[in-house]
Amino acid sequence: MSAHSSRAIGRHPDPVGFRRERWPVGHVNFEVIDHPQDCVTFALRADVDRGDGKLPPALFSAHVPRGMATQLRKLAHRLDELEGKL
Question: Is 78 exposed, middle or buried (0-12, 13-18, 19+ CB in 10 A)?
Fold first, then answer.
């Protein structure tokens, strides 16, 4: 089971051995976990307040593949170009 699932977060809101890092990007939150046994994973969540103190379910989660950081940097550079037009 993913450490990003709502059930996992409910069972282990403050996990020992790894940390959930949250990075807000627009209307999406990137959640990154550097798990000592399960490698590095990420999840995408909608940035909404459910009103019950719980996180919305993950829209997507997976292991971080090699090259992902480079792909995200390319996306960031493109968004920089587009923001210049705003």
Answer: exposed
Task: Give the Cα separation of 86 and 50 in Å (integer).
Answer: 31
83: phi then psi, degrees, rounded to nearest 5: -65, -30
Domain ranges of the chain: 6-83
Distance, in Å, from the CA atom of 6 to the CA atom of 14, rounded to the nearest integer, reads: 13
Q: How far is CA 80 from CA 2, 41, 74, in A?
A: 33, 26, 10
Q: Report pLDDT digits (tens) over 64-83.
A: 999 999 999 999 999 999 99
Indicate the pTM of the whole model: 0.72
